Amino acid sequence: MAGKQAAAPPPPKPIVVLDADGKDVTPKPLFETEKAAANRTALASVFYGGTKADSSQRGHSGQESEMGGSFRSSVDAGFTEPFSRSTLGGSVLAQTSIGSSIQRHMTSQGPGGSAAQKPMQPVLFKESAEPHDLTAEELEENVLITLQETNTMDIFEQAPSAVVWEKPLDKDRKDEDEKEVDDPKELAEQQAKNEKYLELCKNRAGNDRYMQRGMQTVNFQRKGKDVQTVPVLFQDVGVLATPYDMYTSVNESEPADDRDIDDDNDLETAISEDLRKAAAKGRPGPGTLASGSSMATSMAASMAMQLEPTSLSMPGAKPPTAGKAAGTAAAGGPDAPADDDASGGDAPPLVMPDDHPLFHNEDLYESISVMERALAGNVFQEQHARYFGMTPELAYVTFDPVESSVVKEGEDGGDEEVKEPEAEQKKKTSGADDAASDVPTLPPVSRWEGGEDPSVRPIWTYSCVETEGRNVSCLSYNKLNEDILAVGYGEFTFGEQSTGLICCWTRQNPVRPSRMYKVPKDVMSLDFSKLHPSILACGLYDGTIHVYNIREDTVEPIFTSSDHTTKHTGPVWQVSFVSHYNKDSNEAEEVLVSVSSDGQVSRWAMMKSFERSDLISLKKTSKKLPKGPHQTLHTTIAHASKRSEKAGLLHKNAIGLCFDFERAKDPNIYIVGTGDGYLHKCSCSYNEQYLETYVGHTGPVYRVVWSPHNENVFLTCSGDWSVRLWDSESCQPFESLFSSMKAVLDVAWHPIRPTVFATVSNGCIEIWDLARSTLDPVAQYKPVPAVDLTFVRFSRDQEAIVVGDGDGKVTVYRTLNLADEDVHEQHQILEKLRQGGSSNGYGP
Amino acid sequence: MAEIDEAIKKIASHKGVVGTIVVNSDGIPIRTSLDNTTTVHYASLIHQLTSKARSCIRDIDPADDLTFLRIRSKKHEILVAPDKEFFLIVVQNPSS
């Protein structure tokens, strides 16, 4: 243990390790050669000479020296490894020389002027002045430890011996480089050296003077030292940098979190808040929630109160609402495994009070409307498929008719069970003609495809609570988008008047109308504009005309004639947007035309205000008819009109019930149907006279429509149970169709087939095809609870018709197998009929 | 009744609607017609799925965004109308 004084460079003394009692405990080497034994101590002393350290300089406790001593002994063992004598000898020599050189260094730099012969000592191993047990005072006193860098020592240096001796490859630089060529003498020297070395290498193999030899270096013993600091706060923040996230940040400047992290408390708050947010955004599952909250609570004990609710309620709850939610939801928490298990149906529901700011968000209501449509679409999927002519297998997916597993208990489950058997019963009992139920159960597929006969099948019904019981007086497809259907509700018969209703239905949602306008009086007529597809005009029973813009979500009309002094004084039986192409101004122009009971046909301009200009006043006529088989029927009318003429001013004007503008030849010509049964051809340029009067009907003419295919043909229906086809050049109809003893309330041409049209009367829908038969309709449909059918229109895009009835329902029917003949053939047939008819019959 | 309740009634009255849940952006259900456990279950699961679906749509084209999500299963269909501030979840079984 005790070190010994280092001897002078000549004969180093052997090292002897003594323990506290002075016994010699020098460890014996494992293998000892003669020289080794002798040199052992010499080596050791050279390196670790047992000199007294300058305790003032490098004060150390006795421990260090102990370690040094023990190390020395290990060094001893190490150095006496089986080296050959020569190497050992050589090493001793080498080391001694090194030692001396080191000593030289030491003397030149040696701090504190210690003895010149003191060999270099490794910094770690210092000895105290005297080995002694440390007293209590010494243990207590502060020990100053100065750590210094050792001076840099050059152990070996070899100067580079590179010499430029080759000319560069680039010939252009020849001249320059020649000047810079190094000293040729040096070059020669270096070359000579190189050659010598090469020879040496050749001779080296086998030469005793050149041997491979290994060297062992000193491995300093290490000591670890632990340091304790204030715990470092860690925060894990995960960020997923997705391409769209970057896009969002670039395009919308998002406000940065302003958070003043002033003192530690704030930092903790901020961190716990971040934790919550991160937990919420990242994985709001119960598992991670528990871990998140535990991490937070361990970190900030003061935040425990705020964080507790987090573990109970949903992830990411902000403290104030979390407090409330925790209170209400404490018992009925989520499926957090670590936490309460007293949840279930007992707890009060998780609802927020009505003044939650989210409830004023417009987007929420919009989403609700979209959701409604999606739900309705699901319910009516099969119907929509049929409407578009798709086979059901192609179009829809059936759901398993099992009870949904979402609802487990309580009233909902009970209701489900009750509904199931009912629904099944309904399916069994109801047949194909189930048009009256809310959501009609469709007939089985076989009945749809059966047969080649033209037929009409109901698909679905537009109806809701508000429309129940009302009479459908008019409807109009939107000119741009056929999915939108405007329906007007109003009673025809006098004395049953009340408030009217206009509903805009969309095909996607047959359960609830998208727009509902309540009007003070019954609605008699409706029309969508062609030029501005969102404009809807309606005529009411009291003569007012409202114009709505359905694009906006208001209930007020944009124009109304209710304040006008010049409004109609009778019910407005028809309004129509008439558009024609003005060649002068190269634009399409549109005007709104109305006809009413007061016998006025008026044109309305919607520029800055609602302005009216009369087209014609319908005067009563008493056109005499040539004698013929039907004369007796007509005479009553003639008499009546005569009487009225004599009577004078009282009933001067005829009741105008319908009109239709010609589109093909001359946009100024139109036909007006009156309550007397007369039809008048009028022109916008003449407002005093009729161009032509058509006599034939014996009852009020409810509808007049020009044929979309034959510019000379128009069709009328009337209360005299008949439907008549007219040639515009002849005053008599060329075809009269009787099928039932009921007033025909509406007639409509098929948009594609020239000879096909549909009629509705009380309780019956009829499809006629003139190419097949002029005596009977080719298809008939009678809805089971017989209702007054008041309106019919063909769909422009699909093989379907839409029918309004007196019970507030608008039903969509699919027409099947309507015609075999080609469209052209039908065209020709119609033309033939027209010509044939004008030559027969009653001709002028 | 609050406007929101009327609006939600509109949806709930459709044929086959089993439940309606309105969840705010933090994942707290603010209106529901189902029991608590189911509501919270649905809300958290749908939230995760919608985030994934939204990130999928936006990864394809960052200018796009998710507007509606429908998940059809054997027993019913879950319709989700996601928004920045809320989720509207409706569960429907049209054949029941």
Terminal CA distance of chain A reads: 150 Å
Tell me the number of strands of chain A: 28
H/E element order of chain B: HEEHEEE
Sheet with most strands: strand arrangement of chain A: 1-28-27-26
Give the largest interface pair and sizes.
Answer: A-B, 72 and 61 residues
In terms of DSSP E residues, the strand content of chain A is 15-25%
* Sheet of most strands of chain A: 4 strands, antiparallel
- Give helix % range of chain A: 25-40%
> What percent of the residues of chain B sit in helical stretches (DSSP H or I)?
25-40%
Overall average pLDDT of chain B: 88
Radius of gyration of chain B: 14 Å
Shape of chain A: elongated
Global mean pLDDT of chain A: 68
* Number of E-state strands of chain B: 5
> Segments of chain B where pLDDT lies below 50 for 5+ residues?
none
Indicate the overall shape of chain B.
Answer: globular
Strand order of the largest sheet of chain B: 2-1-5-4-3
Poorly predicted spans of chain A:
1-8, 43-123, 256-267, 278-348, 402-440, 624-649, 840-844
Number of helices of chain B: 2
Provide the structure class of chain B: alpha+beta
How far is the N terminus from the C terminus of chain B? 29 Å
What does the model show?
With 844 residues, chain A is of the alpha+beta class. Chain A is 28% helix and 20% strand. Chain A has 18 helices and 28 strands. Chain B is an alpha+beta fold and 96 residues long. Chain B has two helices and five strands. Chain B is globular and about 35 Å long. At the A-B interface, helix 7, helix 11, helix 12 and helix 15 of A face helix 1, strand 1, strand 2, helix 2 and strand 4 of B.
